[in-house]
Amino acid sequence: MRAGSVTVGSRLPRVGTRTELVDALEDMIVQRENVDGGHPPGGALRGLKTYVLESDRDFPRRFGSSCMQCEVEDTGLDAVKILRARRCGAATEFFLDMEDRRFPLLHTNGRSGDTDGIVGELAGDDFHTFDNIWLHSAMLERLARMPGNSSVGLGAPRRGGLLQAEGGNGAAAGGQDQGAADAGPRADAAARGGARIARGSGADPRGFVQDDVRSNGRFAVRRGESVREHLRLIDMCRKEYAGAVAAVEKRRIGVDKRDGVMRVVGGQFDFQFGRSIEDLDAFISWMFSSTPPFMMWGTKFAIRENYFGVIAADLHAGARMHFDIAPDLMRVYLYMRGCGNTVLRLLTNLQLHHDAGTTCRQIG
Fold first, then answer.
1. What is the arrangement of strands in the sheet containing 329-334, beginning at the earlier edge strand?
2. Which residues, including other chains, have CB under 8 Å from residue 126's CB and lie 6 or more apart?
3. Dihedral of alpha carbons 22, 24, 30, 34, sign
4. Cβ neighbours of 322 (radius 10 Å)
5. Please, which pLDDT band fits residue 134 given cuts at 50, 70 and 90?
6. Is 220 helix (H, G, I), strand (E, B) or coil?
7. Which pTM does this prediction carry?
8. 250-360: what CATH class?
9. Cβ distance 157 to 212 under 8 Å?
10. Which residues pair with 322 in a beta bridge?
11. Where exactly does CATH 3.30.160 map onto the chain?
């Protein structure tokens, strides 16, 4: 074992180069428990996990909430820090990679129950304006088809494991089975969609990796030992996601002045539901409740029977939005200063918690 290597539960080493960072992440893989990919009770799974976040500013040196305290320390590499978080009495460390400041990475081999809770609290704290990235079903499918990648399974993580892409008895990628759909809106972690994606040659575990990719941007290594392939997969995802966010933001509603003429620019986003909303009042109350997964607040008004408008705010960015909602469709208007991540969060969570068949014509 190399000097300064990472053992389960140890303090993370300082790293002075990208090569040293990769070495430290490799130690997180090879020392993981449950090498066969099993899921022990209580969410205790260890192993290398990388969380992709969306942020509009740097991490502060010290910050916290009612039940979590965090501090950021330097390493020998400018873009890589160590984030130490204490939540519910347990301390967990992450490598914080800020090379892409819009979409930073958190690497850890802490217990999944602890690390999911910490990242969930970071993303849910609107004061720091961190958010998850949100990978809707079509984006997960594209990621699985990119050069060098192969799909092992697509579906919703449940107690029995990931639904298989072929021969399984479950919903499509990111969806729910009929029993879950009939149960109504859900916000529990078990309902998050995901995909299992492999890269490299399975003949050599050091040149191969198989990741469980969640719709909220968590990449967890389940097989193989190639950190480089793990990071390549994440980089592919970040580039795809950054392009999607930019495309959404090009459609923001605003005013543009050219050649002395004022023009209204931008356009709406047209959402189509595969399953009609039976109770619009209940649906709107749930969606604009200021709570996860949507993190939006709004005031509704009637346009006509069974058709409502909502003046809303995204609580992560504090940006104004407008919605027109009917049983089978919804139009969304994002204004200037709004974040493209908001619309992708909306699409992904409607697929996860309302109807897997939800689509948006302007989002591929």
1. 296-304, 307-314, 319-325, 329-334, 269-272, 359-360
2. 295, 315, 316, 318
3. negative
4. 16
5. very high
6. strand
7. 0.83
8. alpha beta
9. yes
10. 311, 333
11. 250-360
Rounded CA-CA distance 250/1 in Å is 50
Contacts of 35 (CB under 8 A, 6+ apart): none
Report the candidate in 316, 291, 269 with the shortest Cα–Cα distance to residue 132. 316
The pair of structure tokens assigned to 8 is 């389960």
**For the chain, what's the residue count?**
364
Q: Left if phi > 0, otherwise alpha if psi is -120 to 50, otherwise beta: which for 146? A: beta
Distance of CA 250 to the CA centre of its chain: 21
CB contact set of 173 (below 8 Å; sequence gap of 6+): 137, 140, 141, 154, 155, 165, 193, 195
For 121, half-sphere exposure in the C-beta direction (CA atoms, 13 angstrom radius) is: 17
Q: Alpha-carbon torsion 324, 329, 335, 338, what sign? A: positive
Mean pLDDT for 297-305 is 95
What pLDDT, on a 0 to 100 scale, did the predictor assign at position 45?
53
Q: What is the DSSP string of 256-270?
A: EEETTEEEEE---EE
Q: Which residues pair with 49 in a beta bridge?
A: 108, 220
pLDDT for 60 beyond 70: yes
Rounded CA separation 40/45 (Å)? 6
Return d(Cα 305, Cα 244) in angstroms, integer.
35
